Request: fold
Amino acid sequence: MRPIILDCDPGHDDAVAIMLALGNPAIDVRAITTVGGNHVVDKITANALGVLAACHDSSTPVYKGAAKPLMRPVEVAETIHGETGLGGVDLPSPLREIETDNAVSAIIRLVMESNPGELTLVATGPLTNIALAARVEPRIVERLREVVVMGGAISGGNWSACAEFNIHVDPEAAAIVFDEPWPVTMVGLDLTHQALATAQVEEKIRALDTALGSFTLDLLAFFRETYRDVEGFDDPPVHDPCTIAYLIDPTIVETIPAPVSVEWRGELTRGMTVVDRRAQAAQAHTRVATRLDHERFFDLVVEAISTLSHRKDNAHV
Ligand code: BDR
Ligand code: CA
Reply:
């Protein structure tokens, strides 16, 4: 099993990332840490607890993290995720409390307590917590196995002409994370815009006929509507779980080595990820995702929802 810490800002696609991570036997979620992003940190932390409850998970600890980016004012994605940060669903009551420790301390403690090269950090929100952790305890940089980031793009953006939301919100933090010499894999828009939740995908989820399946369909319906109205997509791109799929099976999410630098000074280019695809750059400590196997990716997602649904059934037998 691959042990991970999932640093996230749920968020519709973060919620699906949580489901895939909890429901796949190859992944061991040691902790969920939260960061202000899709909405303010209190709301998205409540969402994380609610999603865990929907997954019938009472064992994964949740640590609340940074409320603000390092240098910038708070900027949320309410137009996409609604005023709760998880529009379209009523969340079940949490099965546990938020941990008293903060996310940055928890990341440092869990990494320093783990064996070298054991833990992977998956980030599906702005990179504030990860940057703070690397600055407070630099030894985590060589101790982690890998950092997998949903964010950035080889080209283009979704929050500006050239920046993706997670990087745009906290570009200074992103610059720290991409500059540190740990292995970083960028799962950016080039890849996640291939992860479209089509009607066929929804049909497979509906066929499960479970409460968690219906919950996921409600999430996707809301996401479909906002992505259609705001970004002109026919089907919504389910970005964040692509990071987890990459860890489960890297043949589903193909990557190439390439240096990545984050532009944080540019007036027009703030939050742009500059990817150097020249052949001589192949020795980079960073990789970027390029191609998704759509069918196998969503099969993993559907299977995880099914597994979590039946775990509940088992618990009640
Ligand atoms: C990213 O931004 C957020 O709105 C999503 O949850 C995802 O992590 C996509 O740009
Ligand atoms: Ca996210």
Observations:
- The beta strands are 2-8, 27-34, 62-64, 120-123, 146-150, 184-187, 253-257, 260-263, 272-275, 286-292.
- The chain has 13 helices and ten strands.
